[in-house]
Design a protein that fits this description.
- The complex is a heterodimer of chains A (about 375) and B (about 130).
- Chain A folds into 2 domains: about 1-270, 2-Layer Sandwich (Gyrase A, domain 2); about 270-350, Elongation Factor Tu (Ef-tu), domain 3 (Beta Barrel), CATH 2.40.30.
- With about 375 residues, chain A is α+β, with helices and mostly antiparallel strands.
- Chain A is about 20% helix and about 35% strand.
- Chain A has a 6-stranded mixed beta sheet with strand order 10-11-12-9-3-13. A 6-stranded antiparallel barrel of chain A has the order 14-17-16-15-18-19.
- In chain A, a hairpin with a 2-residue loop joins strand 6 (about 95-105) and strand 7 (about 105-110).
- Classes of the chains: A alpha+beta (about 375), B alpha+beta (about 130).
- The interface between A and B is medium-sized, with 18 and 13 residues.
Amino acid sequence: MKKTILYDSHIALGARMAPFGGYCMPIQYSGIIAEHKATRGAATIFDTCHMGEFRITGRNAVSDLETIVSCPVATVKIGQCRYGFICNENGGVIDDQILYRMAENEFFMVVNAATEERDFEWIHRHLSAATKIENLSAQTAKLDLQGPASAKIMQKLFADRIDGMKYYSWMKNYYKNSEVLTSRTGYTGEIGFEIYCPNELGKTFWDDCLNLGALPAGLGARDTLRLEMGYPLYGHELDENTNAAESGFTRAIATGKKFIGSTAVLDPARKGRLLVGIQLEGRRSARHGDTVLDKNGVAVGTITSGSFSPSLSCAIAFGYVALPASAIGNHVVVRTDRQELAGSTVEVPFYKKATGRMELKAFL
Amino acid sequence: MPTPTSLKYSKTHEWVKVEGTNASVGITGHAQEALGDITFVELPKVGADVKKDNACCVIESVKAASDINAPLSGKVSEVNESLETAPESVNSDPYGAGWIFKLSNVNSSDAAGLMDAKAYDAFLESDQ
């Protein structure tokens, strides 16, 4: 199993480790709920070095990427980031990714750890001769600094003012006199940043963040945070066999261009189900694979993710539900292997007080 | 968290305090740590008969659900209702405020098969 550059730090902090995406990763340090609450109320730092990073360059980079990702590419400004899907010909999702426009003909793409090699191979296969893709993952450390208190920590560590960073934008900044890529992005919903730098610098940055009061947080809290925000997790809400349109993330799907899988994704006849948020009445969780029943006891869907929500003190879940049963406000029952849980379909995000899109100045 | 010497322990990480034909039951420090943050405890029904080593209630953490076994046979006489709103006491005080249920009509010969603190600690060492 692979290890990130921070492996020894996690062990020294007493982290509980587990395999994820081919890496030995920290699931929790002080506890999932404590780390979750620290992200919503203070600042936390996550080791996300396992994720993949590619550089795509060339005079045809824009037109090539337009065919490969579901989101519009030409309209991504230099300095901007955009979320989209990489689909296969059937409209299934190979991965979700975020594209950073670095220059006219230069893009930086961030992908999931488990799918990095497959994504690289797929993209490479679909590029025209003039477009180059490089895999930067092995030499790129990535850290997520998240939470309302993260902005002050960022400003202490970086030389240039970060006040002007808009949500989903990137800037190069100077940490210990080295140029580092930073973006105002993340998977928690709070004010937060993703930092990309050479491996050795990543270790120093981690230590500096801890010394400035960021709590180390692991994949357990990362999952409860993203679920509360209604963000999908590849392998749960998104996979190669699920039509991207059924995920409901229509913002990530351009309707005016052809891309690999667009025929299947944009064909309403292929959309038989919809991903819905389900709020359970109590604290008991629904789990991946559980069956969703309508109020008449008829099976209408399957749970893709479920957990206790530390912010809401109840259980929440995502599930794919047959279109006719997918309206918001429907009573449902989730059949787990131990009992039946009452709930209803709700709008996501489940957690409505996230700070992520607010004016950064207020947090500096 | 040190293992209290006044209690007895099962191989499935429950602790028992036996007082005559009554007993109190909870899960050990090791068990709560392995489970992580506990989010829900399904208490057994007062009056229910439970059988030694059979599952009698369920404990859920953020990541998983786990059965709790009755370490002795008996009748459920009382349950810790505070766990309905504060299941986290099982994490913070598993041997005290985090007790889960009490039994009456327990069989003292059942208790003889349980481990003392020293044996439980050795059992934990060997398991790791």
